[in-house]
Amino acid sequence: MADQSAEVSEQDKDMQLAAMLWWQIIWYASHEGRSEIPSQQEWLSCELAAAIIDEISRKPHWVSWRHNEKNMEIARSRGWQTRLTQALDACVLSDLGSNWIKPFKLLIQFVRYEPGDGGEYDSALRMFHEENVLRNPGHSTFIPHQETYRRARYHIDNESGLSPLERFHVTTACEVIGGCMRLYIERDLAYIKRNYTW
C-alpha cells in the first residue's frame, strides 16, 4: 500500500511540474504576454499536442477539434481526442536528445486524453485548465499574466527538485514548444475571429 501511495505522490508531483511547464509554454506562445491566445482548453490542448508532435516528428500536425489532417475547417471533429492521443502515442521520444525526453514525456502525459465517466474524455491539462482560471471565461481569448509565468518559474527553480542543468533543459523545451505553438494559435485565432461572437 505504501508503494502505491508513493507512486501516486510521484505522479502528482510530475503532473504539478507538467502544469508549471504548461504555464511557461503559454507565456512563450503568447510572445511573453504580448499576444492573445485561445481561452478554450480544446484549442490549447490541440495546439500543445501539435507543437509536441511537430517538434518530435519535424512535420506539422494540423488535426484539431475544428480542423482535419489537411488543415481544412470542419464543423466539429468527432473523436478528435482519440486521434490526438494516438498521434501523441506514435511519437518516438528517442528521436529527441536525451535532455529533452523528460519534459516532452511529462507534457505528453499532461495533454493525453483518456475516456472518463459518462463518455467524456479527460486530460490533466483539461482538469488543470478548469481548476486554475487564468482567463475570463466569457472571452474566447486571453493574454497570460506575467505573475503566472513567475509562479511557474519559481516552482521549477525552487520546488521541482530538478538540477540546474535539468531546469535549463526544461526551460529551453518550453520556449521551443511555445514558439512552435504560435503557428497553430494563429490559425485558431483566425477561426475564432470568424466564428465566435464572444
Automatic annotation (TrEMBL):
Highest taxon above the source species: Bacteria
Protein name (record): Uncharacterized protein
Organism: Candidatus Wolfebacteria bacterium RIFOXYD1_FULL_48_65
Upper classification of the organism: Bacteria, Candidatus Wolfeibacteriota
